[in-house]
């Protein structure tokens, strides 16, 4: 039985479907941005790339959490 995805990653299928880009591409954009603060990145994704708040927040939260674990 497949494990249910929880947390920010649970948004990933709908983000890929709605915006037509793979999550890895969004993460690359976040990582290449000169911005570093969570809400700055969320605002940037919303204003520059047209993402909704929940989707932008999920991408940023997941990416920053991944990066802090490295």
Short synopsis of the structure:
This is DUF4287 domain-containing protein. With 70 residues, the protein is an all-alpha fold.
Could you explain how this protein is built, in words?
The chain is mostly helical. The chain has 4 helices and no strands. Helix 3 crosses helix 4. The longest helix is centred in the last third of the chain and has 16 residues. The mean pLDDT is 94.
Structural classification = mainly alpha
Number of E-type strands? 0
Shape: globular
H/I helix tally: 4
Report the oligomer.
single chain
pLDDT averaged residue by residue: 94
Q: What does the radius of gyration come to?
A: 12 Å
Helix content, binned percent: 55-70%
Strand fraction equals under 5%
Q: Return the string of H and E elements.
A: HHHH
Give the terminus-to-terminus CA distance: 30 Å
Return residue spans where pLDDT drops below 50 for at least 5 consecutive residues.
none
Largest sheet: none
């Amino acid at each position: 039985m497949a494990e249910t995805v929880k947390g920010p990653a649970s948004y990933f299928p709908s983000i890929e479907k709605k915006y037509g880009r793979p999550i890895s591409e969004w993460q690359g954009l976040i990582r290449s941005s000169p911005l570093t603060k969570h809400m700055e990145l969320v605002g940037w994704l919303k204003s520059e790339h047209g993402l909704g708040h929940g989707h932008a927040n999920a991408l940023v939260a997941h990416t920053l959490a991944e990066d802090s674990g490295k």
